[in-house]
Amino acid sequence: MSDLGALLGEAVDGSLAFLRRADADAAADIEATRRRAVTRPSIVVVGETKRGKSSLVNALIGVPDLSPVDAAVATATYLEFVPGATHGARAWVPDRAEPVGLELGQLRDWATTLGQLPEGTRPPRRVEVTHSAPLLQYLSLVDTPGTGGLDPLHAEVALDAAAQAGALLFVVDASGPFTRPELEFLIEASKRVNVVVFALTKIDAYPGWRTILADDRAQLQTHAPRFAQAPWFPVSARLAQLSMTLPGDAGTELVRESRIAPLQHALIELAGNGHLLQKANVLRSVRSELVRLDLRAGERLTATDPDPADVAKARADRAALAARKRTESRQWSLTLNTETQRARVEATGKLRTYVGQLQDDLLTRIDKAKSDELKALPSDLDTALQALSVRLSQDLEFRFRKVAEKVLAQVFGADELQFVLARLNATLRHALTSRPPRDTGTDNMMIAMSAGGMAFMAGRGAMAGASALGASALLGGGLLVPVAGLGLGLAAGAFILYRRRAQSDRAQARLWLRDVLSEARAALSDEIMHRFTDLQYALTLALDDAIERRLAQLDAHIAEIDKALADDKAERTRRRAAVAAEREAIRSRIKQVDMVLVRARTLAPAATTEDQELP
């Protein structure tokens, strides 16, 4: 491993020096990642909900129910399990400078919406759990929120955690092969992390799991060939947990049937190479930037010896965009306004439906509840409102994306989007964060949210992604406008008011419920209006900026073509040779990086002999 460490170090140094000459900003970003100290290797567990992810975490740590399972509604919280002589937890809550100390029994309350947070407390974004379990002496284990379809809101949380990971443990179950969202998430996460280990859970519940495993491997071979040879570990967390309750040979046999031990040993082996994993991850990030530079060099190479048809097309594109800016900008503005208003009305209607259903359900419960059961109404309502806010946040994200897609489709052609998406992210972020903050406080309700979290998921990688996937894929589903989640809950005033007026009175409880839901609906309705106003404002600025930048890009491209046409044949040959040499140097560097990353595959743990022989 010392030879591999030296090889990785030399490759990172050389490749970063190469990248620094070509793109200093990209190199600086990667340098910041490289300088981050690795105190203990971190394995990040990702996967969709109901895949048995949290149960697997508990089985690996060897503590039943440590990470809350069966959470019907996930929060945007991830749990980081670290070693500690004493057992406890700390929760990092927005707007609080210091973490909140917790008992292990409180994790369900703080990490899921099924529990009960203290009055007026916002859900935490991260919870650190300390435990003396043997596995944690070697590594930190991070359990990320799993949600159906790996929706963008929680996928972002998982990707953020993955960015700090030494390796990923990707969890799927034996009920069926990979879903498309799972594969897309894996491809995105693999841009930052070099080693991924796969766990196939629930093998005790599905006798045909070997067929599913073969299908999963085939899908990786087709859609993510880099992981075609990655190690797979079929496991049963249920059998592992059951083994902890049985003594003697019965427990030992269940441990063997659960197949948890090989995965534990594999993760410990992986953690032993933490510093090497970090170097490999840095090198993987450098490779992604080099691929982007290669694509850009290809465009410049084409411009040095332009085809007459390309010349005519570039000039026509420039003239058409300039003419459309003069004649259609008013139409674009009207389209943006119309689509924004329509989406806002639809979102408000959804809110009315959600609140109405919630009120009907809770009124029915009040009518049937005994007097002691009425005391739990505030906590039940707070949980329901938290769930409603998650659902509404996801709905807003979907509507925001649709508005942006419709407007962009009118302004830019599919072949132009790859040139504008990379800049839209920065423009949107600046437009949103430069707006003066709003006061969202109310007397009895707490609404905590920020429009600054809304931005296009683009960046330097957007152009490479557009070239690889095609601009139509970006409009078809890759274009995302994540929304900072709506945080909605009962503040202390609402709890106090309930205790004073309605704690054991059914009629007063009904009146209290209607009052609170009315305030919640009004507050959320106002916030929806502000969110769409922010979206319209940000998209207006972003579109103006994108059009001007696209015109400038076309002007530069045409100027380069004109220069190429004006030069004599010898000069064009010289310039083409220079660009070709630059591109060849980039490709040569990519090949060198790939050779080292192939060697780095040895960092991935090997599956057991039995598992390697599975079909």
From TrEMBL:
<dbReference type="InterPro" id="IPR051943">
    <property type="entry name" value="TRAFAC_Dynamin-like_GTPase"/>
</dbReference>
<dbReference type="Pfam" id="PF00350">
    <property type="entry name" value="Dynamin_N"/>
</dbReference>
<dbReference type="InterPro" id="IPR045063">
    <property type="entry name" value="Dynamin_N"/>
</dbReference>
<keyword id="KW-1133">Transmembrane helix</keyword>
<keyword id="KW-0812">Transmembrane</keyword>
<feature type="domain" description="Dynamin N-terminal">
    <location>
        <begin position="43"/>
        <end position="195"/>
    </location>
</feature>
<keyword id="KW-0472">Membrane</keyword>
<dbReference type="InterPro" id="IPR027417">
    <property type="entry name" value="P-loop_NTPase"/>
</dbReference>
<feature type="transmembrane region" description="Helical">
    <location>
        <begin position="473"/>
        <end position="498"/>
    </location>
</feature>
<protein>
    <submittedName>
        <fullName>Dynamin</fullName>
    </submittedName>
</protein>
